[in-house]
Structures are given as structure tokens and as C-alpha cells.
Amino acid sequence: MRAILTAWLIVVATCAGAQAIDELKRPGVVALMRHALAPGTGDPAAFELGDCATQRNLDDRGRAQARRTGEALRAAGVAFDAVWTSQWCRTRETARLMEMGTPEAKPPLNSFFAGRGSRARQTRETRALIAALPRDARVLIVTHQVNITALTGRGVRSGEIVVARRTDDGLEVVESYLIAP
User: CA-CA distance, 159 to 90, in Å (whole number)?
Assistant: First the structure.
């Protein structure tokens, strides 16, 4: 019975992954990715935006997760017209290791966890950035859990990609994709 259940779970996960890949290939997709695994919560008290040594960063598993995610997406033929990140080191490193395009840091994508920014302002500005894209442009946004939750109403795991479509009211989540660390 355990073997049957395990086999069934593998089939379900594979189908879900294939559906997410199909959605990521569609014109106009917005792929919202939480940075790869960076153990801990928030950032140290001595956090400085321009100094990676003061931030919570990817560990070896997170770097491997970012590489594997990029490899899987490229192998499946997924491509993006733009790759945006926050200014935090862990988002920029995730995007760089994925090799999905040249990352461009966008300040509205910065974390606002623990009062580091403004949820309302940054969410409004991020929606405006997305709305300014051509309707068929595909964008990968590597950011933080709080930003993705503010945009979609969903929680997200480290390295998870929430696949969304633009609507007149914002974003509609259609799938998710994760390569576990």
C-alpha cells in the first residue's frame, strides 16, 4: 500500500510540475519567486542594503536549489523577457544562479518585513511595474515572501514560483512550481 501511495504522489507531483511549466511558457505570465533557501527569518539587526555580509543569505542548499530550478526551467524551454529582483543579496543571487536573464533590481520588490518598508506603497508600485509591461511579456520576479503574499494572498516556500496571470484587478494565481532545497 505504501508503494502505491508513493507512486501516486510522484505522478501527481509530476503532473502538477508539467502544468506549471506549461503555464510559465504562456505569453503574459508573471512568475513570482521567493528567493531560494536562506535559513532563518528576516535579517540581522545590523542589516545594510549594500552589504551582503550583514544580510541573511543563501546557504549551499539554497544556491543548489536556485541552480537546479534554472536548469529545469531552461531544459523545459521556459524563457522570460525580464528578470526583476529586490535589492537584497539573496534575491539577486537566486536570479543570477538561475541564469534566466540579466537580473534588474527594482526597489518596490524589497522586503517590507519587520517594518523595513511600506507594504501598501511597494505593492502599489509593483503592480504598476507589472501593468507597464507589454501584455504578452513574461516576467520572472525574484522577491520575498511578504511581497508575494501582498500581491497574491498566498504564502510561499523558499524557492517556490507562484505562476500568475494579469487581470484588471491585479494577479490571478494559476499554478505553482517548486524544486525543493
Answer: 11
DSSP assignment of 116-174 equals TS-HHHHHHHHHHHHHTS-TT--EEEEE-HHHHHHHHS----TT-EEEEEEETTEEEEE
Cα gap 149→13, rounded to integer Å: 23
- Give percent of the chain with pLDDT exceeding 90: 78
**DSSP track, 78-112:** ---SEEEE-SSHHHHHHHHHHTSS-EEE-GGGS--
Whichever domain contains 122, its CATH number is: 3.40.50.1240
Residue 58: count other Cβ atoms within 10 Å of its Cβ.
24
Domain range holding 65? Answer: 2-177
Question: What pLDDT score was predicted for residue 20?
Answer: 93
